[in-house]
Amino acid sequence: MYKKERVFIATRHKKEQVIAPIFQQVFDARPFVSSFINTDQFGTFTREIIRKDDPITTLRRKCEYGYKTSGCPLVVASEGSFGSHPSMPFVNANEEVVMFKDFNENIEVIGKYLSTDTNLYESEVSSIIELEKALSEIKFPDHGILIRDKEENEVILKGVFDHEQVIRFVSASLKTGQKLEVSSDMRAVYNPTRMLNIEKATQALVQNMQSKCPQCEAPGFIVSDQKPGLPCSNCGMPTRSIKTAIKKCQKCEYESSIDFPNKKEKEDPMYCDFCNP
Ligand SMILES: [Zn+2]
Ligand SMILES: [Zn+2]
Question: What are the backbone angles phi and psi of residue 115, rounded to the nearest 5°?
Fold first, then answer.
């Protein structure tokens, strides 16, 4: 599967550093990039262009754009989101999603990785002491920073990794009365912590790709749908918890279902609408 085949990695920010080796090792494929690609049109982390769609829709558009630009029907793209952790609202998290599309076979597979390991940070700085605190939170200079004019909401410094130069720039700007905001640069190439999360998401992707349809061997035979109805341990009525997971082949539509995918055959009455309405 995909042995010696060219796979286009639709990235502008050096994500191929982590994506390409995995595709080489796992499939013996030939990943490549192009300097003509500009994925920034789909949204940037420097807030210059705001992402319009959800990550999956954005990834589909990125893959289609990659296919059109490169002419290569096998495309990989990646997309990250940052913010509060879905179940821990006070903790920052980074979710990375990597998508593979085979435009010949009309197959789409994704891999996801959610991590609390992120240097997401944003703070107004009005002194060099505050700047130093921000730099250490962001793990500068291993990780990039962005400095914005807060009133104009415009990035005035990025891609600088020299400590002295940043200090000089901030001192000069503060003297003119500019209000400054320092934040972590989340572009993958300037953010090794994020790059590691993209690597984990790519590993999840290739694992999903390696799961093949038992009937036609198409890749990406993974759980695509779930059905509720796990019975309550007290009254036996169906609850809203997952009872069945469904795997469906994207090519031949072969389907298989697995009961109790979470290794749980009964649900706690606490989640039962009849016992605990
Ligand atoms: Zn199939
Ligand atoms: Zn019940």
Answer: -140, 145
Q: Which ligand is nearest to the CA of 240?
A: 2
Question: Looking at 38-52, 130-144, 173-187, which range is the least confident one?
Answer: 38-52
| Residue-level pLDDT at 64 | 96
Residue 241 Cα to ligand 2 middle (Å): 12
Protein residues with C-beta less than 5 angstroms from the ion ligand 1: 213, 215-216, 218, 249, 251-252, 254
Q: Shortest CA distance to 205 belongs to which of 53, 7, 40, 4?
A: 7
Q: Residue 149 has which token pair?
A: 């004019």
Our CA dihedral for 113, 6, 212, 242, rounded to 10 degrees, sits at 30
In a domain, 218, yes or no: no
Q: Note down the domain range covering 132.
A: 122-185
Number of domains in the chain: 3
What's the token pair of residue 40?
């920034």
pTM: 0.89
Query: Cα of 67 to ligand 2 centre, how many Å?
Result: 51
> Do 18 and 107 fall within a single domain?
yes
